[in-house]
Amino acid sequence: MTSLRPQGLCPHLFVRDAEAAIGFYQEGLGAVEVFRNTLSDGTILFVELQLGAGRLLVSEETPAFGAPAPPTLGGSPVLILLEVDDPDAVAERAIGAGAEVEMPVGEMFWGERYGVLRDPFGHRWAVTTAREQLTPEEIVRSTTYRVDD
C-alpha cells in the first residue's frame, strides 16, 4: 500500500477563521492549496497546503474536540521553522500580508539568517536560511551568552 502523502512532519494548525488563514498562508508565505475537505454546512474540516517541500494542514478552531486556536489559549508556545532561500523576502511578504515581527531577520551566531514572525492567527514562524555550516563546537564558541550565567 502506498502513502497518498509524502511521509514526514506536517503541522496541523487550528485557527478562528480558516478561510482567512489559508489566504494569508498563500499570500504571505507562498503556500499552494492541495486539498480541501469541508463539512456539509461548508465548515472547513481541513485544507492541505503545500509550503515549500513540506505540507501544512489548516482547520477551524474546535475547542469541543480539543482543537483550540492560539487566541483561545492566550498565545502559542510552538515555533514553526520555515527554511527558505531568502528569509528577508519571505518576512517582507508575510508582513505585507499581516504578520507581526517578533524578531527581525538578521545574521545569527549559529550560521543562519533568521527571524521570527507571528501570523494574524497567533501562530509563530521562524524564517531562516543557512549561510554557513558550523560545527557544534564553533557554535558554542561563538555564543555570546550562557544558560548558566
Q: Could you explain the architecture of this structure?
A:
The protein is of the alpha/beta class and 149 residues long. The protein has one domain: 2,3-Dihydroxybiphenyl 1,2-Dioxygenase, domain 1. It is built from four helices and eight strands. Strands 1-4-3-2 form a four-stranded mixed β-sheet, covered by helices on one side. A hairpin with a 4-residue loop joins strand 6 and strand 7. Helix 1 packs antiparallel against helix 3. The protein is elongated and about 55 Å long. 23% of the residues are buried. The mean pLDDT is 88.
List key phrases describing it.
149 residues, Glyas_Bleomycin-R_OHBP_Dase, 22% helix, elongated, VOC family protein, 4 helices, 4-stranded mixed β-sheet, single chain, alpha/beta, 2,3-Dihydroxybiphenyl 1,2-Dioxygenase, domain 1
Number of helices: 4
Radius of gyration: 17 Å
* CATH architecture type: Roll
Proportion of strand residues: 35-45%
* Structural domain count: 1
CATH superfamily: 2,3-Dihydroxybiphenyl 1,2-Dioxygenase, domain 1
Q: How many strands appear in the DSSP assignment?
A: 8
Low-confidence stretches: none
The largest beta-sheet arranges its strands as 1-4-3-2
User: Mean pLDDT, nearest integer?
Assistant: 88
* Structural class designation: alpha/beta
Spell the H/E element sequence. Answer: EHEEEHEHEEEH
State the CATH topology. 2,3-Dihydroxybiphenyl 1,2-Dioxygenase, domain 1
Instruction: Give the fraction of residues assigned to helices.
Output: 10-25%
Quick one: CATH class? Alpha Beta
Q: What sort of overall outline do the alpha carbons produce when their principal axes are compared?
A: elongated
